[in-house]
User: What shape does this take?
Amino acid sequence: MREDILLGGPVAFLSEELGFLPSERLLAYQAWWETEGFPISLAIDRLGTPHLKQFSAAGERIDEIGYPPSYTYLLNAGYSAGIIAEVAQRHDLRLSYLLGFITAYYDPGLYCPYTVTLSTWVPLYKYFQGQRREEFLGLLERTEPPFGQGATWMTEIGGGSDLGTHVQTVAYRGEGELWFLEGDKYFASNVGAEVAVVAARPEGAPPGLKGVALFVVPRERLLSPGRNYYIRRLKDKIGTRSVPTGEVELRHSEAYLVGEAHQGIYYIMEVLNFSRVANAIGVVAHGLHALAQAYKFAQQRRLFGRFLAEQPLFRHELSRQYERLRWAGALAWLTEQWLETVWLERPPYSERYALFRLLSHLAKFWTAKVALDAAHWGIEIWGGLGILAEFPAERFLRELLITDIWEGTRHRHLLDGWEVLKRFHLHATLPTLWDLSAVDPSLLPDIENTLALPEEEALPQIEGLMTRLAQTIGQLTATQRTYTVSA
Assistant: This one.
């Protein structure tokens, strides 16, 4: 294990693992986080979380989010660095995710606004052709403050894993291209955003996923002055406190249909794909930070006559955790590279897109597990100090507990990944891309045997198989460096 890389911060890890010389932009962004951003982030997490002001002094409903004075300064740093603008101007997804890795190393909650803003921009850019297209895109593509932000609101009280059942928000047709939405979103991240893409069911649409469409909802009304959606309350979360998450009330809210209504579920899945890749990259970064802080603490903690960092069992476990993060990072960046090649596709998608979908499911659930394990081990290294809010170890665990279920729980990704593997017969394609047998000789035979079983017998086995598949692809990629990344 390269201890200098572990202690060198996110750019050192990226440079070593992905094999590029870091740009001045990345180095400057990390330096800003070290000197200014991270102290602000710590203060916001402890003392300065957002709050909701629902009424003006005149009793008018205003639903404004109040932020700590330094929050906007913190948020603007990523937008100013080009985390969204470079995608809009040059389709540079890679730079956006590299900047996201650095952001999430210090604060995965702050990476959420950037992620959902990008995930809002993508369907508007690809599919929205309404009269306000340039206005909405221009808002999100700003290169100087004030920056416009996006949000992606799908989840309702029943949960987000079964959108076909639980999307109850109804869309009613208005005049021209205008629609009106009625419903409630229960987990709305980056609440208060200037524009959001929202899942809703057009009146008279069929039940299930085929009846779900995607709409764009602006913050302000056009037909009459005032807010276009209302914020019932903000969530009191254990972590990711630097992004306001709330409950949104859509009450005759003005909206515009994105693309074709009957293809809405495809657009929604594309939105989620961008967020899942970001989640995979972000959790690896934050897990790496948890590991680095544990190692720094072990260097000064003296036990039984010598420093903990010098003791064999500690060094063995540190190397094991670091190696697993390397493999997880390799899987995350491999998935990002595949996203770069397919993100402009439209349905019906290619087989390559199906392979990307499989990678995205593997990367989302497995990277989150590996990073959470690293943070949990970090608590053990800190001992009793690890559970005290005045030290950083407990925050790493809190943040990664949330990112473990963001953008889909483990079982959702296991089921979806297995479904795409089976439907497109990807087990036959995988050996042409990766020599899986070099790491796990029985993996492909075990997958093929399980695919042949009845569903009630196969499904209890898929977690073990998909975990092995994720780790094997990550390990091979980390060893062979079978991706190319530049910055």
In short: The chain has a mean pLDDT of 95. The CA atoms of residues 106 and 146 lie 23 Å apart. Residues 265-480 form a domain with the Butyryl-CoA Dehydrogenase, subunit A; domain 3 fold (CATH 1.20.140.10). The chain has three domains: 3-140, 150-262, 265-480.
